[in-house]
Amino acid sequence: MRFFRPVIIFLVLALCSCKGGDKDWHEPQSEADLSGLSVTSVSGTLYDIELSKRPDIKKVLFKSTADCLEALDRGMVDVYVDDDDTFTEPELKRQKLKIAFRGGMELPTAFAFQKGSELRDQFNLFLDSLNRDGSVERIRKFWANPEGVPFETIPEIETYTEGEFLRIGTASMREPNSYVANGVWVGFEVELVKRFAASLKRPVIITHFDVPSLIFGLQTGNLDIMMGSITVTEERKRNIDFSEPYEIKHPAFYVIDRESETHHMAFFSRIGDSFYQNLFLDKRWSYIIRGLQKTLDLTMLSVLFGSLLGILLCAMSRSRKKWMKDFVSVYALLMHGLPMLVLLLFMFYVVFSGSSINALFVAVVAFSLNFTSSASGIFSSSIDAIPKGQTEAGLALGFTKIGTFTNIVLPQAIQKGLSSFKGACIGLLKNTSIVGYIGVLDLTKASDLIRSRTFDAFVPLLLISVVYLILAWAIGKILDLALKKS
Amino acid sequence: MITVEHLNKKYIEKDGKLTTVLKDVNCEINKGDVISIIGPSGTGKSTFLRSLNMLEIPSGGRILYKGEDITAKGYPLDQLRRKVGMVFQQFNLFPHMSVLENVKFAPVKLLGMSDEDATKEAMSMLRKVGMAEKADSMPGSLSGGQQQRVEIARCLAMKPEVILFDEPTSALDPSMVAEVLSVMRQLAAEKMTMLIVTHKMKFARDVSNRIFFMNQGVIYEEGSPQQIFGNPVHSATKAFVQGIMKLSFDVTNDDFDFFDMNSQMSAFSTKYGFSDKRDKIIHVTEEMTQVVLQSYRPLHIVLSYTEMTGDVAVAFMIKDLHQSPLLNKDIDELAMTMVRGMSREVIEEPTKLGYRIKVVL
């Protein structure tokens, strides 16, 4: 019974949170009606600033659209404010949302560049020429798909593999501007930048970041172009340059559609629908597979390089030279003290800043450096745990110093240190879930990507939780097997 | 076979103090010798033994093995150690290998023996030490005595020319000492060259052809067991082999703390198991110091206990005196009669330093 109690409490809480209480509800029709309501928006956006000007509104901020919708769905907030093109019609239906009213504010949308960049002028010329022959309108129509079925192909554009990469960062993984379908970046904005790159005869690389990281990336020269329904604001203009706007948006105030069919759908068919939406529609499971691949690559490479460097560091810590010992202790101090995320960001934005090095590579470097310190510590303490008499016995039998170490001390040290090493590997695996911060599409980021399109947290998170658990279990088994073989 | 010349070992301790473990060790070890190295603890016995296979690197002097200087820089020590086996106090078996694997590991790895040959050889060595039955056991499941016998077999499997035993029975439960010593007796009978650091005097006397008595970092006295145990030249050797324990005091004037002396003597007699004689000791000492030899100061008092014979004696020594004080007319005859009555024997003898009266209880 004691075991089930937390489960029951959890279920009760979950049920309560699903059924938001229906108080006296008057749907707001204008901005004046918002007084006294609680309104949510994505933090750091224009709406964040605009809402602050209204003290009569209770402002609730979240990091992503998906989180805002979750809050709206649970009845924690009344209204969600965002651009009026945030959702397609079918999406609104699926999310049981409707637009209560549109705001009067005009929001120009444009591409952003580094301050004083020549690329901006080139892009403006390019956009102007497309505007004149009506191409922009044609492309927009192509992607503004009334049925809401995601496009799986992009109209044929010449691609280049040689030359310097045009590094694009996008803040959006949403239709119709920029999103991933079948593993390829597509959408209205994507087509525009790809055509632009083709006109420069340069290859393109597109990565997803949040807006603050994108602006930082532009400023440090890690990125060439920033896009993803970026609104031109006076504040942003101080730090970055914008192209000519290609679209004018308006704010929209979203509320739950209480008459919608989805709202009254049965629990199990909702779950089924959720699985379909999150995994099978548009082959979304393939993100998970590719994310898994990245997570595995990152974990295995970091364990490999970290262990090799760890051996070196362990040897240095046992050396007679003082400077070597000092180096190891300073290194260990640094790695113990720095949060992994800080180290990762430091590597990405400072050490490898401005270079066109692959983010996965940067992640492997950062995680290897971190793992080196824990691995060397584990190696060192496992060797120390073997009594001195073992070394003496080996020497006395006629083994050389090295022979004694490899034949007698090492096999015992490996047995001693294996469980800590396993723990460190699993810790590393779990730690890799932060690489999304520098744009590596790992398992966690893959679930984020799905979540940002389906606005459903439960299924993607449940799925990757299961995958992480299986991986952690498998790492332990593999290491045990490797030990048995040797 | 092994010649040791002016071997010494010093090291600087953490507090910067220089400690000399071996001062100047010289000896010649011949093929077939069974040498027991005895002596008080902390006199460098183990350090000397461990120098012979260079587990301990000497600070000075030379060790010649069959004429080759093994202390020379760059001498292939791993080759030397294959011929000079060592058995440790703590056995040091490899805990992750079975008994059989422990024994055959080095022959396979170092002598290039085939697994089949090495197994055959290892089994015959294990049979020799009576451990063949446990060939597949792990060391952790064996008793100390069994582990030590496996250690000897492991050492023998390398076909050594000499075996160094570093206190092979010191870490053992008393009930297991005999099984290890009997294996060593058997080896000695087979004319294996052996050097044994040991505290087992009876074993050393029975099994060795030579005894090294080490004291204060040198080989203090060397000889056959008969000589060392029966008729040692030096008094330190005699005290050690006979197991003489001493407790001494200097009474310089009458302010001496007699109560403290009494309690120390009492503790000493309890420690060595002759507390039945405690009252006699104290009584005799009191009569002698405060009545009979009242006018003789300074007075050197030694309480001694001989482990071998169980004798307890109190000796009173008066410096620079050449004739017995008991001949003096002023002596308190009554008190002296009491002392004689309590003792087995009173020995009056002149020594180099002065005159000694020894009361054997």
Number of helices of chain A: 18
Proportion of helical residues of chain A: 55-70%
Largest interface: A-B, 17 and 23 residues
Separation, N- and C-terminal Cα atoms of chain A: 45 Å
Give me the CATH architecture of the largest domain in chain A, please: Orthogonal Bundle
Please give the radius of gyration of chain A in angstroms.
27 Å
Shape of chain A: globular
How would a crystallographer describe the biggest sheet of chain A? 5 strands, mixed
For the largest beta sheet of chain A, what order do the strands appear in spatially? 2-1-3-14-4
How many domain units of chain A?
Answer: 3
Overall average residue pLDDT of chain A: 84
CATH level-3 fold name of the largest domain in chain A = MetI-like fold
Shape of chain B: elongated
**CATH fourth-tier homologous superfamily of the largest domain in chain A:** MetI-like
- Which secondary-structure class do the elements of chain B indicate? alpha/beta
CATH first level of the largest domain in chain A: which class?
A: Mainly Alpha
Tell me the total number of β-strands of chain A.
14
What does the oligomeric state look like here?
heterodimer
Q: What would CATH call the class of the largest domain in chain B? A: Alpha Beta
Key features of this structure:
heterodimer, A: 486 residues, alpha/beta, D-Maltodextrin-Binding Protein, domain 2, MetI-like fold, 5-stranded mixed β-sheet, globular, B: 361 residues, Rossmann fold, Heat Shock Protein 90, 6-stranded mixed β-sheet, 5-stranded antiparallel β-sheet, 15 strands, elongated
Structure description:
- The complex is a heterodimer of chains A (486) and B (361).
- Chain A is α/β, with parallel strands linked by helices and 486 residues long.
- Chain A folds into three domains: 22-105 and 253-264, 3-Layer(aba) Sandwich (D-Maltodextrin-Binding Protein, domain 2); 111-244, 3-Layer(aba) Sandwich (D-Maltodextrin-Binding Protein, domain 2); 285-485, MetI-like (MetI-like fold), CATH 1.10.3720.10.
- Chain A contains 18 helices and 14 strands.
- The longest helix of chain A has 33 residues, at 285-317.
- The model of chain A is unreliable at 17-22 (pLDDT under 50).
- Chain B has 361 residues and is an alpha/beta fold.
- Chain B folds into two domains: 2-237, Rossmann fold (3-Layer(aba) Sandwich), CATH 3.40.50; 243-360, Heat Shock Protein 90 (2-Layer Sandwich), CATH 3.30.565.
- Chain B has helices at residues 45-51, 77-83, 99-110, 115-128, 144-156, 174-189, 201-207, 225-230, 235-242, 258-271, 278-292, 333-342; strands at 2-12, 18-29, 34-38, 60-65, 68-69, 84-87, 162-166, 193-197, 210-215, 218-223, 244-251, 299-306, 312-319, 345-350, 354-360.
- Chain B has a six-stranded mixed sheet with strand order 6-7-8-3-9-10, sandwiched between helices. In chain B, strands 11-12-13-15-14 form a five-stranded antiparallel sheet. A four-stranded antiparallel sheet of chain B has the order 2-1-4-5, covered by helices on one side.
- The longest helix of chain B is centred in the middle third of the chain and has 16 residues, at 174-189.
- The model of chain B has no long low-confidence stretch (mean pLDDT 90).
- The chains are: A alpha/beta (486), B alpha/beta (361).
- The A-B interface holds A 387, 389-390, 392-393, 395-400, 403, 407-408, 411-412, 415 and B 53, 55, 77-79, 81-82, 85-86, 88, 90, 92-96, 105-106, 109-110, 154-155, 158.
